Every structure is written in C-alpha cells, then in structure tokens.
Amino acid sequence: MGCGSCGTSGGCSPKGCKSNGTCGTSGCNKLNVYNWLSDTAMPDNYKPFDIIEIRFKGSRKEFYRNSNNLELYTGDAVVVDSDMGYDVGHVSLAGELVRLQLKKRGIKENAESIRNIQRKAHDKDTEKYQEAKFREGKVLERARTIAIQLKLEMKLSDIEIQGDNKKVIFFYTAESRVDFRELIKRFADEFKLRIEMRQIGYREEASRLGGIGSCGRELCCSTWLTDFKMVNTSAARFQNLSINMLKLSGQCGKLKCCLNYELDTYMDALEEFPKSKTVRLDTVMGAAFMIKTDILKRLAWFSYEEKNSWICIPLAKVNEYLKMNANGQKAPELVGEIIEPKTQEDIDSKNDANLDLVSEDITRLDQKAKKKKKKKKPTFNQPKSN
C-alpha cells in the first residue's frame, strides 16, 4: 500500500521511506507522523527532548522517556518498560514535535505514568518479538472458540502479545457488561500468559483492523484520523443526502466520519438560501413552490401549482423575487431551464427502446454467413469410344 503513495524506483522500496515501506507496522500510512523539524539545524547547546513516541501493533501509540540518551531515529525497534517484563515497539516520532503530541493528548511532561526506554532491540529481542506476532493468529482463533463455548455476548476483534511473550491483551467489543471470571481462567490455563481484557469502541476496532472504504482509499481512522467526533444524521440532511443507513454507515457500523468534512462548506452556502421550510413565490402566472435545491451550484427548482414541470432559477433571482413579494409586488414569470416530468408512456417507450437495443446488441454479430455455392469445374466432352 505504501509503494503506491510514496513512489517506487526499481522494486517495492518507496523513495521516502527508509524501512522499505513497512515502518514496523506493515503499512506506510499507519498513523505516520512527518517530522518537519528533522532537517532544521539546532543550536550547539540544545538538549534533545527526552520523550519519544513509540508505536505498537495497530494504531496504539504511547510515550516513553529516553533516560539513557540513546540516539534514536524513526523506525528503530526499541525495548521499553512494561508493567510486567518488557515490550518491543518502534519509534514513530522524536524531537520537539513530541511536545505538541503530549499537549494534544493532555499528558504532562513530568507525568509519572511515562515509562523508560531500556535499549535498542537486539537480534534476540527481534526474534522473540516475531515469534510472539506469529503466535497471535492461533491464540486469537482458540480464544474466540472458548468465548463461543461460554456463550458470552462479546466479540474478540484483535489481540496483542507482549514482546517478551509473557502477557497478552485481548481487544473486544460488547454492547453490555461481560462477566470474564470463567473466561480469564480458561485463557490462563490454555495460553500460560498473563491476561488483560481491554474493551474498545466500534470505531477503534475499525481503526485497529483497517480496511478499504467505499471511496476506494484506506480508512481514515487507520491512516491519519485520531479523534472521533460525533456524526449526526443532520449532517446528511444539510448536504441533501438521502438517509440510507446502508450507504451512510462505515465499516464500524456508525455514520461515516467523512460526513463532517464538507459540512462547514454546506452550512456557509445555506446561509444564502431562504430559511423557511416551504418557499413560495407569488408571480404574475400564479404561486410557485420550491421543489429542489442544488446548494453548491446555488440553484433552485420551482413548480407552479397547476403544472408539473420544474423551472431552474439561480439563487440570486430567488432572493430578489422574495424581496419583491415582501414589498407587496408580484414577481415576473419564472424563466429558466424547464424539466418536464416523465409520463408512463415515456417510461414504456424508453424500456421498449432499451429492449430493442439489447436484442440488437445480442444478435448483431450472429449474422448467418451466406454459403457460397461451389462452382462446378468445367468438364470437357470426351470422344465416345466405338
């Protein structure tokens, strides 16, 4: 996925990525952060910021203190402290930009919850880490089987085994509270690991698992989106979208986050439109009512009471006619592009034409080849024998 976005030259090694397109997370776009201060020259007496942002499996990121003054770069595998043993992660950001990330998360620089970085990961640490990741698939499959046997109303969506192979975190989604007492006992006897159950929301689940959206791109929550804002159906109504939950819902089952992206543009454009729900224009030809609007093109379609045809009028003229009505004057006859309604005869004739077209398309290459008659070879009269 990264090769298509960063560009390639002679293979699958992106130009802008020094980790061959993986960055430790099997994807170039997994909540990457670009350090735009990396090429800036710092003063001689400058002391580097001692807190590093470390990325783990999925979209999980945590902050650790570089108390040993290690020289770390983006993508380096490091061994960090954990509440039990150690874990292995990858450096995602270092330097002064980490201060902004801490401020964004609401974490203080001198917080006691920030653990330390032990060392850079050696070959043995990397091998043990790879063994733990290889084991995750089988453990997750067996854990789901046990949860089904216990008839628990929950869904185990993802799993993360610690780098030292001593602890496992199960990420799950559930509608209500779940009793884990028997489940944890079964897990501990089965896997011989310390068990931690962590409940996540449906959007966090989609962020961890990733996927392709209806737009054809990777999910925003798994590539760059970190804060999930509330999305209401009113956002779809303001944009003149039909309230079809199958089309408006994302892979998490909630309304798509992208409904909020252009909402401000639509809200600014709607300021020029009339505020009333039913817009009526009194013209010399009679009363006309607004049927449809195009917000971004600033167009409105009106229809007279006795006629079914729609007349397209620019929004500026609509506001001008409304001012005339407010002053007690009637607006002139509406002039614009007219859209006639389709009658049943038009629909039937169109369907017949489509059928004729289909039949013609099917048989146009099935013309029977005319059989050419074979010409008889001329025979010469031979002399009759006596």
Description:
By secondary structure, the protein is an alpha+beta fold. It folds into four domains: 101 residues, no CATH class; 74 residues, GMP Synthetase, Chain A, domain 3, CATH 3.30.300.20; 43 residues, no CATH class; 60 residues, no CATH class. Helices cover 30% and strands 20% of the residues. The protein has eleven helices and 13 strands. It has a five-stranded mixed beta barrel. A five-stranded antiparallel beta sheet has the order 9-10-11-12-13, with helices on one face. Strands 6-7-8 form a three-stranded mixed beta sheet, sandwiched between helices. The chain is elongated, with a radius of gyration of 34 Å.
Question: Can you lay out the helices and strands and say which pair or pack?
Answer:
Elements (H helix, E strand, L loop, with lengths): L1 H5 L44 E5 L5 E5 L11 E5 L4 E8 L3 H9 L9 E6 L2 H27 L5 E7 L5 E7 L7 H11 L2 E6 L2 H8 L10 H4 L9 H6 L6 H4 L14 H8 L9 E4 L2 E9 L4 E6 L5 E5 H12 L10 E3 L4 H20 L23
Helix pairs in contact: 3-4
